[in-house]
Write a structure and sequence with these properties.
By secondary structure, the chain is of the alpha/beta class. The protein has 3 domains: 83 residues, DnaA, N-terminal domain (GMP Synthetase, Chain A, domain 3); 174 residues, 3-Layer(aba) Sandwich (Rossmann fold); 170 residues, Orthogonal Bundle (Chromosomal Replication Initiator Protein Dnaa, Chain: A), CATH 1.10.1750.10. The protein contains 19 helices and 10 strands. The chain has a 5-stranded parallel sheet with strand order 7-8-9-6-10, with helices on both faces. Strands 1-2-3 form a 3-stranded mixed sheet, covered by helices on one side. Helix 16 packs across helix 18. The longest helix has 23 residues. It is globular, with a radius of gyration of 23 Å. The N and C termini lie far apart (52 Å).
Length: 455
Amino acid sequence: MEDTNGLWTRCAALLREQLPESAWQMWLAGIEPVTVRTTDTSVVLVLGVPNQAVRDRLETRYLSRIRETLAMLAGHDIEVELKVRPDVPVPVPGPQLQPAEPTVTGSSTTEDATVILDSRFTFDSFVAASSNRLAYAAAQAVAENPGRAYNPLYIYGDSGLGKTHLLHAIGNYVRENFPHRKVRYVTTETFMNDYVESLRLATQMVFKRHYRDCDMLLIDDIQFMQGRSGLQEEFFHTYNDLHGTGRQIVLTSDRAPTSIETLQDRLRSRFLSGLITEIDPPDLETRVAILRSKAAAHGMDVPNEILDFIATHVTNNIRELEGALIRVSAFASLNQQPFSLALAEKVLADMVSASETRQITPQAILETTAAYYGFTVDALCGPSRTRPLVTARQVAMYLVRDLTEHSYPTIARIFGGRDHTTVIHAVDKITKQMMERRQIYDQVTDLIYKIKSNQ
């Protein structure tokens, strides 16, 4: 039990850093390691939980993250079994859920664990151009003068154009320059899930305190509130509480407030009372600049003719731009070949094919990937954690992210309602493995060809 306790202690510490403190206290603080057992094919860690409600929540939202963290620490897959232990006290929401004062760790300033911001997304790493200049300038103004410049700031545009980047850039700037201000970043899906759980468990006051006890609230993909009257009602009061006391609100969406169907008029009018700014698809020069910035961030020395080639054939989505750049770079690295236009044309032949007319859907990607690896679509979206299946699932997540405009939370829903951070982990992992493992690169490339050619 000493090794079991030690492994879980390290895993719990990492999980607590990643999760909001309220989520930690409510769902994970009561977990205790029970035992570990081994079989010929697997290692199973049995964890004790306070009650069935906690077990259900862990299984639907946090179990995949627990498994991934354990696997990272142990160096191999570990199955997890949740066992209800009535003797374990249920965590009671209370004063401990209040956000802690900021603390300084090393050279970076961090708040309580409610802030989950991507440090890669800063104003310096954002390529400003005519297509996004107003949104970029407004985001900077809000970050420099929270609650005083534009409140609310509402940024909208198609998927993959940089809205989330700006949202994180605002949060990262405030954390660095105003370390005593509390920042909340959240997707609308997470906001909705937390709201539903607070109703189910009668913890509405914990929910309200979590989202209203902050100086800046950043909410991504606000369009997902459409058609959810109860959620809109709760957000209306949260908005009024924050805005009425001069605290900053920043929202992103794939459409303007006037185009969100079934949005309450009182919410729509409040969104329209601030600054509404749109991000348009980047022009050719901007796409080249974005590629040059991405190449520099990855330590790649890519000739201009290759950047021009990619930018010419990928026109609407920054994610697809980066995906094309990674494919070319990975191919060159794996084959120890220098960058050349001929190499880029060969690797990205599917992108310039004149016969490409089929609309790529997540279902098409799931079906093609499942058949390729010899699994079913249900298995890809299911809970099993066997190694070959996990690889196939992560590749499928990467492909949905690369070939469609779906957001991380949407992809997480497609794959059985997982947490969106699981998708982020999968995309990052496959991106890295494509650079290092020929087998993964060949599989991803082959699947992209099959999906785009409808084979």
